[in-house]
Design goal:
The protein contains seven helices and ten strands. It is α+β, with helices and mostly antiparallel strands and 322 residues long. The protein is globular and about 70 Å long. It starts with a helix and ends in a 19-residue tail after the last strand.
Length: 322
């Protein structure tokens, strides 16, 4: 989100980007993929800005390449001027590239199974938006207004773990604890300013959600959801230039939501849940080195529209056990 505001909102960059065909992918998976996509990516990533780093280090950033895989340029920056220079230089490299080296010689190789291919078409997807809540000592720069998004996936069989079998008004049901715990440790994380890792299973100290059926009118069941979460983990992370050090990170808060369940469709027609509480600590890439103490944080979970842009796999999908 930081780059969207500081880089891609720039009119000159938008004009320059119009010369290229944009594509995005999850860099860790792409860098390690042994199929055609991974091999193609490594044609440029190993010549780019992080190419001299060990193979298990990230290759995050922006890359320009010809369809043939010829390297045109790369950068990893949230400064508009850096990206402008990168796009201009990459376009110049393309114009100088001989036509015989611009295209692939044959068809691309077979596409390997990817997390995005497991999108739960008949299940449920939440769009999870995170941000810091207002406080007196908030930073005045981008960090004080930062926000981020992630997606939480639920398969069709998960839906029955939300709703009670009997849809009579006034009934209460504990949402499946394993499902709530997975959501909490993967998505109630501090990714507001950057990226972070999921909490491990043993960091879940409490994760509950109760669903109450408030009314039933024909096919539609109006529900209320309430919950409570506490996550805490002790570990070692390099949150600044001083190297790794031991610390504790966590989140503690409450959840409140409302929705409408369709008995006929067996899914939610509408659903919105908010979570508010406090977070503390930091990890390597979430830019909290100056903000380790307890601070207010909030999340909004909404049903995601089924658009190509909203089919992004959860940031910690490998924690799902799928």
């Amino acid at each position: 989100m930081r780059a969207r505001r500081s880089v891609w909102a720039d009119p000159e960059i938008q004009k320059l980007a119009g010369k290229f065909i944009p594509a995005t992918d999850e860099v860790t998976m792409l860098h390690r993929d042994q199929g055609a996509a991974g091999k193609h990516f490594r044609l440029v990533s190993e010549k780019g800005h992080y190419g001299r780093n060990p193979l298990d280090w990230t290759r995050q950033g922006l890359y320009c390449l010809a369809p043939s895989g010829e390297f045109l340029g790369s950068v990893n920056s949230t400064r508009a001027e850096d990206v402008k220079a990168f796009l201009k230089e990459s376009w110049e490299a393309w114009e100088k590239l001989p036509k015989g080296r611009r295209l692939m010689e044959g068809a691309p190789g077979e596409w390997r199974d990817r997390w995005a291919d497991r999108y739960p078409v008949d299940g449920m997807v939440w769009k999870v938006t995170s941000r810091d809540l207002p406080r007196a000592n908030a930073r005045k720069d981008w960090a004080g207004h930062a926000w981020n998004i992630d997606y939480a996936w639920f398969r069709r069989e998960d839906l029955a773990r939300f709703m009670p079998a009997d849809a009579k008004a006034g009934l209460k049901k504990d949402v499946d604890g394993e499902l709530v715990a997975r959501f909490a440790r993967c998505h109630l994380v501090d990714n507001v300013r950057g990226q972070t890792i999921a909490f491990p299973a043993d960091a879940v100290k409490k994760a509950t959600m109760v669903l109450v059926t408030e009314s039933v009118k024909g096919d539609r069941v109006t529900v209320r959801l309430e919950g409570e979460v506490r996550l805490e983990q002790r570990g070692r992370w390099a949150v600044d230039d001083t190297g790794e050090r031991e610390q504790t990170r966590g989140f503690e808060g409450k959840l409140l939501g409302a929705g409408v369940w369709s008995l006929k469709a067996g899914t939610f027609e509408s659903l919105e849940i908010v979570a508010a509480g406090v977070r503390w600590g930091a990890t390597r890439y979430n830019f909290r080195a100056d903000d380790l103490e307890r601070g207010a944080i909030g999340y909004v979970m909404q049903l995601a529209p089924d658009t190509p842009a909203d089919r992004m796999a959860p940031a910690s999908i490998w924690e799902y056990g799928w």
